[in-house]
Amino acid sequence: MSTPSPAPPQPSATALFYRNIRWLRFVDRFGRKGQASVEYVGGLGQLVGEAIASMFSRPFYSYELLRQMDELGVKSVSITGLTAFVTGGVLALQTAYSLAAFGGKIFIGRVVSLSLVRELGPVLTALMVGGRVGSGITAELGSMTVTEQVDALRAMAVSPVRRLVVPRILATVLMMPILTTLADVLGILGGLLVAVADLGMTFQDYLSSIWQQLQISDIMSGLGKTFFFGLEIAAIGCYNGLTVQGGAASVGTATTRTVVIASICILVSDFFLTKLFLGI
Fold first, then answer.
1. For FRET with 28, which of 167, 184, 200, 268 sits at 20 to 30 Å CA-CA?
2. 111: closest CA among 130, 95, 123?
3. Residue 219 and residue 20: Cα distance in Å, rounded?
4. pLDDT by residue (tens digit) across 133-156?
5. For residue range 193-230, what is the model confidence (pLDDT) as tens digits?
6. Using CA atoms, how far apart are residues 259 and 264, in angstroms rounded to an integer?
7. Is 233:168 a contact under the CB 8 Å cutoff?
8. Spatial separation of the C-alpha atoms in residues 63 and 235, rounded to whole Å
9. How many CA atoms lie within 13 A of 125 on its CB side?
10. For 10, what's the count of Cα atoms within 13 Å in the CB-facing half-sphere?
11. What gap in Å lies between CA 92 and CA 113, rounded to an integer?
């Protein structure tokens, strides 16, 4: 007659207590992260709402708007243009070598133009502008916040949103389509340079393939995204700068957070904007 196997040892009360403590700590940490995320989105939305409302009432700081358009837009032409130019050349090379067995040369102009105008041009421009402009806005406003310059504006009955946020949002939103257009043109020229100099295509063949394929709807869908990208970049940069607490180290942390959050928002919103424009 076989003896029954002994019952498995039950965990002690102390082990159960510490297991529950670890679970409660995880739930508490998750809840705090979720609460912080909700508060962040709510504060960001409130800032955007106040900025939009301030755009339609006086006073309007037109000189500050022009200065920000130069600082945030004109000075970003070099980095966005170079990025698009190199990307266009890489696209031409990849198209030629990947589709060589199928006569890929005739598709180089189409692939480069459509890829840049619809997706790569707006997204790469937004990412470059987000890295340069978003971090710059956060660093500038964050320095003003920790040195109590923003509080001084409030003491003088000057709205920080109207004085600091509105010109930066407007400047970024207005300059993003211009920067993207220049990037698209330079990217197509980069593909043209590679196609003619390295792949043996003619100037006429490259351009004719673009004119046959590229449509106004392709251009408008790409440019339409840039307004949303510009709003995201400027709003996130301004909000992180105005909510900095602490010293110079906090400003650096807020600047890094701006680049990360702006990049994620650009990539995620690009998916939904693409579905929206394709459905229109």
1. 268
2. 95
3. 57
4. 999 999 999 998 888 888 888 888
5. 988 888 778 888 888 888 877 888 888 989 999 999 99
6. 9
7. no
8. 20
9. 38
10. 3
11. 10
